[in-house]
Amino acid sequence: MSHHIAVIPGDGIGNEVMPEGVRALEAAARRFDLDLKFTDFDFASCDYFDRHGKMMPDDWRDQLGGMDAIFFGAVGMPERVPDHISLWGSLLQFRRSFDQYVNLRPCKLMPGIKSPLANRKPGDIDFYVVRENTEGEYSSVGGRMFEGTDREVVIQDTVMTRTGIDRVLKFAFDLAMTRPRKKLTSATKSNGISITMPYWDERVAEMAKGYSDISVDKFHIDILTANFVLHPDWFDVVVASNLFGDILSDLGPACTGTIGVAPSANINPEGHFPSLFEPVHGSAPDIAGQGIANPIGQIWSAAMMLEHLGHIDAGKAVVDAIERVLAAGPENTPLTPDLGGKGTTSELGEAIAEAI
Amino acid sequence: MSHHIAVIPGDGIGNEVMPEGVRALEAAARRFDLDLKFTDFDFASCDYFDRHGKMMPDDWRDQLGGMDAIFFGAVGMPERVPDHISLWGSLLQFRRSFDQYVNLRPCKLMPGIKSPLANRKPGDIDFYVVRENTEGEYSSVGGRMFEGTDREVVIQDTVMTRTGIDRVLKFAFDLAMTRPRKKLTSATKSNGISITMPYWDERVAEMAKGYSDISVDKFHIDILTANFVLHPDWFDVVVASNLFGDILSDLGPACTGTIGVAPSANINPEGHFPSLFEPVHGSAPDIAGQGIANPIGQIWSAAMMLEHLGHIDAGKAVVDAIERVLAAGPENTPLTPDLGGKGTTSELGEAIAEAI
Ligand SMILES: CC(C)[C@H](C(=O)O)[C@@H](O)C(=O)O
Ligand SMILES: CC(C)[C@H](C(=O)O)[C@@H](O)C(=O)O
């Protein structure tokens, strides 16, 4: 079985870490005898925007729709194109048009990575954030009135549907069923956001009825962020709306010290559309062009892609390789400066590819 | 000059920590020769709700409107009354009706309190979160359609006004001017929340023009929560919308280990209405009734109230007393169990009152 993968590096360090992600995939393909085919795309980048006045060609859905997966770098160059234009014109389009309604992000304390939290060691923190990825607070409904006057007012709707909530909850509950602790935590704010979030809570309670093996709890988002810091060991699978999931899936990796290396999967579970795999980090214009960006987020995303394509062993081999290289430490392996080493992006990518 | 203070303990541990807050105020009044008058109110509690079917009497505005300040405990007993009813029927009413549009919360690493972050010591973290407190994501506009069917949809509006944003920004910039570092950080999410948050950014940029001494930066809320954990020393004054401020002002105190002791002020800066002072912690039904709740959040809120009423020295004396008692440690002072001690709520309250 062959897989056709769209490669979209995007902006900034996306261009530097992407080759290492592909290198890891090629290494895994050799070892596990997989047939991976890659096609590069230059759109969904601010360079493309400069040339064409838009982030993507009109037929982007046709170009990408038939792919088996999208391997994505990072997008955004806020000095050149405002973020809400570059992101809504690319990444957020993919998520919506390809109905990638699950954004899945592991938060795992890895060997050799320093957690900013006191007294936590590998194994202590190991959970998933499951983020709703197509609706909720990220809506395009709303507008501005009395523009330019003192009465100016802006309004934006949060829109949640039963369909939208239930399907991501189902994914999260199913994921929790595969985990030893069988625990699910829901992020809410029903005490303050008094219309949408009580509805979210209702749907969680309803879904829970079908999963009597799962122990379910919920926290308001404010105290939940506090508990990520105070009690990260409490969590197993955390399910959240688009905005809350966005926050938790940066904060979780930050607590494990892995914000620069964390991966994410934007999944259309039914497989009607290609899913998209990308590092959690952004395009990092401040360090772009220096060859020092950490490629692990991109490579770990490759692992999630392999698992999604059904190659569980290959995915695990890539994560194992990352863990072994990290555990070897900066004296023995070319870790990038953010990990306390002196390696370049491509040296670290090569070391991981070899370990695979 | 005498001050008339409304005392509203609310629910749960609110009833246990409030007497200690009042005790501290009385101690400060004796030492600084202040004339404080207290009136107790039993509404804004779930007990009141049980008796009257509503959280407050119809004339609550008349009863409280003439007070010089409101000293508040905590509200909420979710097992008995859903949070969105108890909160929208009390605390959130106060904030809105009394136009307490600034919610001010210090995040400070205190002596004797263990931070969950590695290698941080008192002095390293010392910033304020300034939260917009009357509009934004906490709106009551929206509703539900196709109820009970698969097409069910809920919609809630975020509403931001120029007036509402500008006045809280002005407070935050003015506060930053009083601080040695003169630094202001704005919380945004203009890359995802594409209508309201770009407007927030615009108003920040506009306001900044009038404060050339202030160095201004901004972060998207996802990476900002990460930076609270990774680089808490970066921050001086952080200004945020209602929801983002809610999150940051729980996360900030969590990073300093002080979530159980942090105070907050809900301020109407013009003094047209009474301001309200309350601990950050909630009613904590799980430990209510045991006499072990930590009263420091309530007492520190008393200090903020004294400062607000113009008694800067008295406020500082209360904070000093808290710091001295904390620094003495659990062997020498009756710290509550959450601080590693064996003291009760009232023993710790008494120790602080004596230190004042
Ligand atoms: C209880 C709740 C409605 C409230 C809020 O979200 O404003 C609380 O979390 C706070 O921060 O004061
Ligand atoms: C870049 C931005 C629009 C995006 C989001 O908020 O979804 C990013 O933060 C992410 O988490 O993938």
UniProtKB/TrEMBL annotation, chains A, B:
Lineage top rank: taxon = Bacteria
Tell me which InterPro entries the record gives. ICDH/IPMDH, IsoCit/isopropylmalate_DH_CS, IsoPropMal-DH-like_dom, TTC_DH
What are its cofactors? Mn(2+); Mg(2+)
Q: SUPFAM superfamilies, alphabetically?
A: Isocitrate/Isopropylmalate dehydrogenase-like (SSF53659)
Domain Isopropylmalate dehydrogenase-like, which positions? Answer: 4-352
Q: Which reaction does it catalyse?
A: (R)-malate + NAD(+) = pyruvate + CO2 + NADH
Mind listing the UniProt keywords for this protein, alphabetically? Manganese, Metal-binding, NAD, Oxidoreductase
Which top-level enzyme class is recorded in the Swiss-Prot or TrEMBL entry? oxidoreductase
Q: What Enzyme Commission number(s) does the record list for this chain?
A: 1.1.1.83
Gene Ontology molecular function terms on file: D-malate dehydrogenase (decarboxylating) (NAD+) activity; magnesium ion binding; NAD binding
**Family matches, as PANTHER family:** D-MALATE DEHYDROGENASE [DECARBOXYLATING]
What family does the Swiss-Prot or TrEMBL record give for this protein?
A: Belongs to the isocitrate and isopropylmalate dehydrogenases family.
Q: What is this protein called?
A: D-malate dehydrogenase (decarboxylating)
